Amino acid sequence: MLRSSAFHLRIKPRAACRRLLHQASPTFKDTRKGTAGVAAAVLVVTGAYTLGCPRQVLYADSPEGPDSQGWFSWPVVVKAITPDPKELPKVSKAEGYDNANQSRPGQQAPPSQTKGHKNSDISEALNDSDVSAWHGMIESFETAKDSIVNFEISKIGEKIAGTIVPRWVKVMPGYISKLQNELSMAPGSLAEEIWHEANDPEINPEIIWDARVRVSDDICKEERDFLRKRKIHTTAALAKYLDVPETEIHPADVPTIAMCGSGGGLRALVAGTSSYLSAQEAGLFDCVTYTAGVSGSCWLQTLFYSSVGQQSHGRMINHLKSRLNVHIAYPPAALSLLSSAPTSKYLLSGVVEKMKGVPDADFGLVDVYGLLLGTRLLVPKGELGISDNDFKISNQRQHTDSGAYPLPIYTAVRHEIPNVAQTQDRAMNLQDETSKAIARAEAWFQWFEWTPYEFFCEELGAGIPTWAIGRKFDGGYSVYRDNGLALPELRVPLLMGIWGSAFCATLSHYYKEVRPIIRSLAGFSGIDQLIAEKDEDLTKVHPFEPASIPNFAANMKSLLPQSCPESVHNVSTLQLMDAGMSNNLPIYPLLRPGRDIDVLIAFDASADVRQDNWIKVTDGYVKQRGIKGWPMGAGWPTEELNEEQTLKELEQAQATTEEEATKRVEEAQNAEKSKPVVEGGKVPAKPSDLGYCTVWVGTTEERENDTEPPLSKQVEEDWELMRPDAGIAVIYFPFLKNKKVPGVDPQTSDFMSTWNFVYTDEEIDKVVSLARANFEEGREQTKRTIRAVWERKRKHRLDREAEAKEIRRQTRMRKVNRYKQYGDHGDQFS
C-alpha cells in the first residue's frame, strides 16, 4: 500500500526574466579528420582538468531550523505528513508503485509525497567545504588554460606554431574561461541557475514524488497498459502489411513482434537506422511491439523518440548527415555548444545535478563521453531548436502511452566478479591462482534495462520508476536530502555514455573488435592463437572504470532472491557499462515473462558477426531461465561443426582406386550445383556462412528428461513455422557485404570501425545503401514468416473456440438427456 500523504503546494510567479546567455561564440570550419586524433587527445586532457569532479561532498542543502531560507527566491508552502522512517511500512514482494490517480497519455500522475521541503537560499547554503570544492574546480580550469598557452608559446614558438599547432588551440583558453565562469556557481552563473531549477518542483516535479522499489518478476502495470493499447495499433498495421481485410485479423492472433539492433557505435546507429527505415517503408515497423538496443542502437532509439527524430527514421538519417561530419571530441565544436546558450544549459544540467547532488560523485571518462555524445546527437542542426524534453527517458512515454509506437528498451550490464572488491582496479585484486580460477568460473554480467516506465534488473527481480533514476534508495524507499527533495531524473547524455561505453570493455572485448584485421595480416596467426589462450584472464580486466549510479537495491537482502550476489547489498552504487560486454544483441530483456514475443527480428551490425555469434550465445541464458520456445542451436555454425562435416565428407570420399575417387568427386560437385538457393537468403555454398536473412523457429514441447533439446535448423519451408508446437521465430539480418553495393564491406572498410566517430555524407549513404540492400534480400521471406506465425495463432484460436463450443454442446446434451430420463418425454406432436 502506498504511504498516505497530503500536500498543498503554492508557488508565486517567479521574477519576470532570468539571466540571458546569447553571446555569439567563434565558429570553426576546420573539421578535417587529420585533426581528430589530436583533438581527442587534447579534449581528454582538458576534460581531466576542467570536468574532474572532486571527491568532496558537493552539497548546497539548507541548514536545519525554522528560520532557514529556502531553495527558492519565492515563498513555497508545503503541508505534508512526515513520518518517522522506522514507522514506514515494509516493502513487500510483488508490491508495485502504480499511481492512484489517472493521468492523461504521456503525463505522469504525481505519486504520493510523504516529505515536505523547506526553504533555503543558495547563496547562504554554500558552506566552506562547498566553496572550497568549487574553488578547486575553478583552479583546474586555470591550470588547463595556462598549460595550453604555455605549450603554444614556449615550446612551439610563434613562427611555426601556425603550422604545427591547430588553429583551435589558440582560442582554447577563451573557451575554457567561458566554461569556467558558467560552472563557477557564482550568483548569476549557469551552474547556479541549473542547481536552482534542479530544486524547483515546478520544473522537475519528480523531486517531490515518492518512489519505492518494486519487487516482482512481472512487468509493471504501465507496460501492461501499453501492451493492451499497442495491440489495437498493431492489429490494423498487420492487416495492411499482409494485405488482408482488417475484419479478418483478430487481436488475439496478432503476433507480438520485437525488433532489436546490435551494438557497434556509429556503425550500428547508421546501419540500424537504415534497417528500421526499410522496415518502416515496408509496413513492418508499425507491426512491432518492442524495440531494444545495445550501445549505438540505444542512441538510435533515443533519437527516434526525440524532437530531433520526430519518430521518423528518414528524418534521423538527415540529422546524422548534418552532425556526424565533425568528431565528437573536436574541441571548438564541443566547447562552443557547452559554453553558449541555449545548448549549454541543457547539456550541462546532468553534470551539475550529479556533481552537487551526489556525495562523492565521480565524474569520470564515461560521463565526459556521454556529454560529448550529447553535443553531437541531441543538438539539431539549428541549435535553437534544442528541446529540454529530450533529456529525460521518462518523457518518451508521451509517445508510447497511447500505443502509437513500440516500447523502447535500453540496456546496460554490471560485471559481477565474486570475491573481488569493486575498486578502481578491481580486476587486478586477484592475488593467487585459486581466486583467479574462482573468478574465471563464476564471473558473469547482470543485465539492467530502461523503458520510459521502469529501470529494472531481472536477476534482482526489482526495479524503480524511470523518473527516480539518480536518487538514493535505502531498504526499498527513497532517501531524501536534508531539504526534503530528491534529485531530478538522471539526464540522457550521461545515460548515452553508459549505454555506449565500449571502452570500459575488458581486454578480451577490445581484442574482438580488432581481431578481423589481425587475422587478415600475414604472420599474425601465432599472436592470435596466443591471445586466444589467455582470453579467460583478459575477460576480467577493465582498463577504464565504468560509470556509477546510486544502488536502488541497497539494504534489501531479505526481499531479493537468494541468488543475488552479496556485493549488491554492500555497495552504494552500481557500476554499469555497455551491454555488448555480455551479448551484443539485446535478446535477454525481450525474453522476460510477460512480454511473450512470437517473432524476434535482429539486425546485427557487430564488428565480427560470424565469430561473435551472438544468437548462439543466447542458448545458455535460455537454459538457465528455463525459457520454452527459443530455437536452440540457432546462429552461425561453429567451427567444430564444420570440422565434423569435413571429416564426414572425407570418409565418404575414400576410394580404393583413382577412377572411383574421381567419380565421387564429380558426383559431389554435381550435387553441390543442384542444391536450390534459399529464396531471400542466397546462402553461400560454404556451410559456415549464413545468408542475408535467416529464419529459425523453436519448439514449445516439454522434455521428459534432462537431455539436450535438438538443435534448430534453418527454416526453409513455411509449414515448419505452422507446427502446433512451434515456438519463437527468429529472423536474423547480419550486416554483410552485398554485391549490389560494390566497394563497401563492414569487415574491411576503415570508416566502419566501432572506434570511428566521423562519418561523411558519402559514407553515411554507403552504410544506408548496404543496410537497405540486405533488408531487400530478406523482405519477402520476413513477410512469409510473419504471415505463417499469424496463421498458426489464428488456427490455434479457432481450434480452441471449436473445442470450447463442442464442450458446451456436449454439456447441453447431457442436461437434455437427464431431463428426458426423469421428466416428460413429449406429447403426440413431438
TrEMBL record:
<feature type="region of interest" description="Disordered">
    <location>
        <begin position="87"/>
        <end position="123"/>
    </location>
</feature>
<dbReference type="GO" id="GO:0046475">
    <property type="term" value="P:glycerophospholipid catabolic process"/>
</dbReference>
<dbReference type="InterPro" id="IPR016035">
    <property type="entry name" value="Acyl_Trfase/lysoPLipase"/>
</dbReference>
<protein>
    <recommendedName>
        <fullName>Lysophospholipase</fullName>
        <ecNumber>3.1.1.5</ecNumber>
    </recommendedName>
</protein>
<feature type="compositionally biased region" description="Polar residues">
    <location>
        <begin position="99"/>
        <end position="114"/>
    </location>
</feature>
<dbReference type="GO" id="GO:0004622">
    <property type="term" value="F:phosphatidylcholine lysophospholipase activity"/>
</dbReference>
<dbReference type="InterPro" id="IPR002642">
    <property type="entry name" value="LysoPLipase_cat_dom"/>
</dbReference>
<feature type="domain" description="PLA2c">
    <location>
        <begin position="205"/>
        <end position="826"/>
    </location>
</feature>
<feature type="region of interest" description="Disordered">
    <location>
        <begin position="653"/>
        <end position="683"/>
    </location>
</feature>
<feature type="compositionally biased region" description="Basic and acidic residues">
    <location>
        <begin position="660"/>
        <end position="676"/>
    </location>
</feature>
<keyword id="KW-0443">Lipid metabolism</keyword>
<feature type="region of interest" description="Disordered">
    <location>
        <begin position="804"/>
        <end position="830"/>
    </location>
</feature>
<dbReference type="GO" id="GO:0004623">
    <property type="term" value="F:phospholipase A2 activity"/>
</dbReference>
<dbReference type="Pfam" id="PF01735">
    <property type="entry name" value="PLA2_B"/>
</dbReference>
<comment type="similarity">
    <text>Belongs to the lysophospholipase family.</text>
</comment>
<dbReference type="GO" id="GO:0005829">
    <property type="term" value="C:cytosol"/>
</dbReference>
<keyword id="KW-0378">Hydrolase</keyword>
<feature type="compositionally biased region" description="Basic and acidic residues">
    <location>
        <begin position="87"/>
        <end position="96"/>
    </location>
</feature>
<feature type="compositionally biased region" description="Basic and acidic residues">
    <location>
        <begin position="821"/>
        <end position="830"/>
    </location>
</feature>
<keyword id="KW-0442">Lipid degradation</keyword>
